[in-house]
Design a protein that fits this description.
- This protein has 328 residues and is an alpha/beta fold.
- The termini are far apart.
- Helix 7 runs parallel beside helix 8, helix 9 packs across helix 10 and helix 10 crosses helix 11.
- It has eleven helices and ten strands.
- The chain is extended, with a radius of gyration of 27 Å.
Length: 328
């Protein structure tokens, strides 16, 4: 009887260890799968190779696309024979419906990918011949959703220029209309803003991104939908900050909100991966093509336009709506 009791008592302890052994075996299989995935990633070789050439001492901030074809997959072409030029100090805007390849143009400029055909030049140099660090140092990006780290405001700003002094950071924040809300934070520039800047509003995050780009001081500025997710109250401040940022720089703007591109020197209208139209705001409205359709669809109200420009915009909108059987 005593032996039976002993067996029953020890049996439960033995079963517990066997059960734990099965659990650990399961964990080991999960770990092995994770390790295989990590080693598989480490074994991959990048498609974009860094150039070993010596970076030029100076480069003209001129962008040129020459017959660029690109596709993420062989059976899904994104860009077809894209050719255009952005002269130093000028502003070129890319507009069009979602999925026409506008953001891909920015990705190719940064060499996140290389085109299958054609070439992209910066200051007359094929960007594939420039060291990646040098190439990317020549460009500052203000994206639709700027990435902010779980860190202080000052350290997030310092990403634009790690060697910047506190005074330089404050000047950049003032130029971006960000200083006032920063000093109102609990610890000012030393406030931790959470992962992706979760403690800030969309407009505040965007002004941090603009200040970061100002601090970087790159000669080429890329704006990827910088005001698309901003309310009207914040948009005015951000537009003023963008105006200061664009001064004396070569600028490329991607925008759905067409009011942000009216003053561009040239507007490129993309459709199905091609440049379907190009010209100034007034020229494209007068043509009555894709751009005029986009303007009419957004019912743009551009108060800064002269009377002739407003009349032209209304005329284009009226004719398009009339064709659709609607009324103004």
């Amino acid at each position: 009887m005593d032996k039976l009791v002993m067996v029953l008592l020890l049996g439960s302890l033995f079963y517990e260890h066997v059960s734990n052994l099965l659990l650990y075996h399961h964990y080991s299989l999960q770990g092995r799968r994770s390790a295989n995935a990590i080693f598989e990633l480490l074994d991959q070789r990048p498609e974009v190779l860094d150039s070993q050439a010596i970076a030029p001492s100076a480069i003209e901030p001129e962008i040129r696309f020459e017959g660029v074809f690109f596709s993420y997959h062989c059976d899904r072409p994104v860009l077809h024979n894209i050719s255009f030029e952005v002269k130093p100090g000028s502003t070129v805007a890319l507009v069009g419906a979602t999925g026409t390849g506008k953001s891909t143009v920015i990705d190719l400029l940064f060499r996140f990918h290389d085109p299958q055909e054609g070439r992209i030049l910066l200051g007359g140099y094929d960007i594939r011949s420039l060291p990646l660090n040098f190439l990317r140092s020549q460009m500052a990006l203000v994206a639709q959703e700027p990435y902010l780290f779980y860190d202080t405001v000052e350290n997030n700003l310092r990403l634009g220029n790690p060697g910047a002094s506190h005074e330089e950071i404050v000047r950049a924040a003032e130029a971006a209309n960000a200083h006032q809300f920063i000093v109102a934070l609990p610890e000012g520039y030393q406030t931790v803003i959470g992962e992706r800047g979760v403690l800030l509003s969309g407009g505040e995050r965007q002004r941090i991104a603009i200040a970061r780009a100002l601090l970087k001081g790159a000669p080429v500025l890329l704006l990827d939908e910088p005001t698309s997710s901003i309310d009207a109250e914040n948009e005015e401040d951000i537009q003023k900050a963008l105006g200061r940022l664009q001064s004396q720089r070569t600028v490329m703007i991607i925008a759905h909100r067409l009011s942000t591109v009216r003053k561009a020197d040239c507007i490129l209208v993309m459709e199905r991966g091609r440049i379907a139209e190009s010209g100034s705001h007034e020229e494209l409205l007068a043509n009555g093509g894709i751009y005029a359709h986009l303007v009419a669809a957004q019912s743009l109200d551009i108060p800064e336009c002269g009377d002739d420009e407003n009349a032209l915009s209304m005329e284009a909108g009226s004719s398009l709506l009339a064709m659709a059987g609607g009324e103004l």
